[in-house]
Structure formats: C-alpha cells, structure tokens
Design a protein that fits this description.
Number of helices: 10
Distance between the termini: 44 Å
Shape: globular
Structural class: mainly alpha
Radius of gyration: 19 Å
Order of helices and strands: HHHHHHHHHH
Length: about 220
C-alpha cells in the first residue's frame, strides 16, 4: 500500500493556495457526510473551484489528495487541542476538557467523527490513512494523549504501577465509547444504554478514569 511522506509545509510551512483549496474541499465534503470512498477527483476540484487537471500538478492520485487533506486537518485540529490541554491546571482538568471537546464537536463537526471512523475503519482509504499515520508522518490523538499522560506521570499525578501505553489506550477507548454512545439519539441508542442518562454516562466514565489512574 502507498504511504505518503508528510512534508515540512504541511507541518506548519506555507502551502500552495491551490493545495489549501483542495484540502478545504475534502474537509467540506466530509462535513457534508459524503462517502469518502466514492469521491472522485472532479468532485474535489469542483468544490475547490479549480480545474481537474490542476490536482494532478500536485498529487499523484485521488487517494493522496484525500489523505493529505484529512491529515492536514487532523494535524491542525490536534495542535489546537494540545495547546488547550497544556493550559489546564492538572490532569483531571485535561480529561474534563476532552469530554467537553467531544460534547461540543459531536453534532457540529461531522468531519471529526468521519476522520475517527476512517482511522478505525477497514476501507481502502482507511488502510492508506492508517499506514501513512503509522509510518510516523502525522500526529494522531494517541500521540496527544501519550504526551499529557507522560507529563502527568512525571508530575506525580498518576499511579506508577500502570504502563503508560496501557493508560493511553484505556483512556482512548473509554473516550471513544462515550463519544459513540453520545452520538446516538436516545431512541437509537443500544438497549443496554438507554437507562443511563448521557450526562450520567459522562460522569461515570470520567470518575472511572480518574479513580483508576490518578493518585
């Protein structure tokens, strides 16, 4: 499978205006719940307002446009999240912020949910995306979690008996589970979760994380 190297420009440098238009078009289409696997280059260039041939001046394929667009969005989003996490007073405040982030973005930021699904999916685009991410060329939510957990461990806020990798994956799993349940309308939620108010679900999940890992 093809993996694309993440360029210095995409890590904070200056990108071509046409490339930025293409990336924005990809994100706009994701926000409109368009199936990324059926997207055509012409769909992206039409939304970007540029000629179809122009895309091939910068990219080798449709998949490359989509994956670079997604990763550009993800890098910028996660940079903002990490900046906000560093402003929280302690680890408990950081976890609260992550729950707030889920609640605020769940129904207003369709693209974020689509990106998470793609990172966990099995389609061809998902596979390309996962392999590019795993090659170390882009920031992921796990990277952000890892850094705040390492700092919390160093500051003595977390119990030492748990490996950092276990804490990272456990917290990530619990946040994703909460996000998945919160994304359902109450009548569409799994039967086993309908008796629990979503606010109560958030509090229970939060207390579970803090109780298990904090000193």
């Amino acid at each position: 499978m093809k993996k694309w190297m993440w360029s210095k420009a995409e890590n904070g440098g200056q990108l071509s205006p046409k490339v930025l238009l293409l990336y924005k078009a990809v994100i706009d289409l994701l926000n409109e719940n368009v199936d990324v696997n059926t997207l055509k280059v012409s769909d992206i260039t039409q939304r970007a307002g540029i000629g179809k041939g122009t895309a091939y001046d910068y990219f080798e394929s449709k998949e490359e446009v989509i994956i670079r667009g997604i990763l550009y969005y993800l890098n910028r989003f996660l940079a903002e999240v990490e900046d906000m996490l560093q402003k929280q007073e302690d680890f408990a405040g950081q976890i609260t912020y992550l729950f707030d982030l889920i609640d605020e973005n769940l129904h207003e930021n369709e693209c974020l949910l689509r990106v998470v699904h793609l990172l966990l999916g099995s389609s061809q685009i998902s596979t390309y995306l996962q392999q590019t991410v795993h090659s170390g060329n882009a920031k992921t939510p796990l990277d952000v979690l890892d850094r705040i957990i390492v700092r919390a461990m160093e500051s003595g806020e977390l119990k030492k008996e748990y490996p950092i990798s276990y804490i990272v994956y456990t917290i990530c799993a619990r946040l994703l589970t909460y996000a998945a349940l919160a994304d359902f309308k109450e009548e569409d939620r799994p039967v086993y979760s309908r008796s629990v108010d979503i606010r109560q679900m958030r509090e229970l999940t939060y207390q579970g994380i803090i109780g298990e890992f904090c000193v």
